[in-house]
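Work Package 4 report. The design task specified in the project plan requires that, given a folded chain encoded as structure tokens, an amino acid be chosen for each position. We show below one input record used in the internal validation round.
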């Protein structure tokens, strides 16, 4: 199975690169399933029902989120009606929405997507390791053909620990939230694909997707500053490409994908794309 996880989509330029590139990426990479983290899609903060529809129309299958999931309040009443929009599984019991879903591919195969959130340097929430363990006990690999975990977190140590915690039991653990892609894509010893952070789909001439001046000012003066505004320059699409063995559900390949904007382009297959131009 071929899966793509696009990291945090930030603002309009991030949405544009995702919705224009996903149809072509589905074709050229023969993708079976596409997940995007949409927590910053609405002008940098949260997501709306209209943006969800735009993603689905372009060929996105599932949208994950993180700490910014509720920034646009309308999504709170929307999320229970959309099983393809996930929030972290380890939010307290009774929180609207779900932290995982099992999705059919149309050819009989199925994939479980889990969205969990880390705790170091983040909000105090329930233990993500226990939350993931519970889901894997209910539905281990074998019951589904692939399991993809978007682990939304700040600390690389917590993300690597989750990767090894899931090794051999999940197809891929890919981090989101830092908005910067890491260079550590690898298949762990027991067969789980891992990358600490997929990076953002957004304008990299910025401070993690926000206009530079207001962001820098926050570090220069210990005062409430100007409101952060999303950077609107051309975005780089940053994603993790994963290939799995349908028989075992374990990974046979993981590679970064970078396309457009300021970051050096990277194509995840050895064969170049037919028309690979950023
Ligand atoms: Fe984010
Ligand atoms: Fe985040």
């Amino acid at each position: 199975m071929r899966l793509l996880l696009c990291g945090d989509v930030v603002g309009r330029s991030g949405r544009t690169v995702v919705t224009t590139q996903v149809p072509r990426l589905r074709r050229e990479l023969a993708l079976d399933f596409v997940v995007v983290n949409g927590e910053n899609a609405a002008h940098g903060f949260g997501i709306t029902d209209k943006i969800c529809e735009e993603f689905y129309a372009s060929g996105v299958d599932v949208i994950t989120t993180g700490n910014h999931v509720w920034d646009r309040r309308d999504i709170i009443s929307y999320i229970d009606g959309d099983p393809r929009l996930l929030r972290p599984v380890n939010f307290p019991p009774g929180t609207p929405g779900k932290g995982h879903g099992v999705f059919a591919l149309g050819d009989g195969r199925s994939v479980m997507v889990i969205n969990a959130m880390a705790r170091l340097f983040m909000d105090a929430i329930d233990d993500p390791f226990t939350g993931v363990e519970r889901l894997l006990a209910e539905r281990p690999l074998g019951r589904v053909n692939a399991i993809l975990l978007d682990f939304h977190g700040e600390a690389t140590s917590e993300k690597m620990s989750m990767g090894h915690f899931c090794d051999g039991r999940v197809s891929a653990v890919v981090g989101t939230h830092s908005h910067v892609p890491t260079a550590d894509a690898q298949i762990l010893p027991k067969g789980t694909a891992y990358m600490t952070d997929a990076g953002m789909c957004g304008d990299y001439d910025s401070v993690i997707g926000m206009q530079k001046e207001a962001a820098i000012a926050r570090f220069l003066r210990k005062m409430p500053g100007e409101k952060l505004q999303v950077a609107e320059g051309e975005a780089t699409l940053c994603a993790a490409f994963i290939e799995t063995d349908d028989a075992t559900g374990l990974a046979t390949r993981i590679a970064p994908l970078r396309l457009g904007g300021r970051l050096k382009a990277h194509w995840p297959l050895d064969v170049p794309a037919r028309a690979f131009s950023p």
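The helical segments are 11-28, 49-58, 74-78, 128-138, 156-166, 212-220. Validation will be extended to a larger panel in the next phase.
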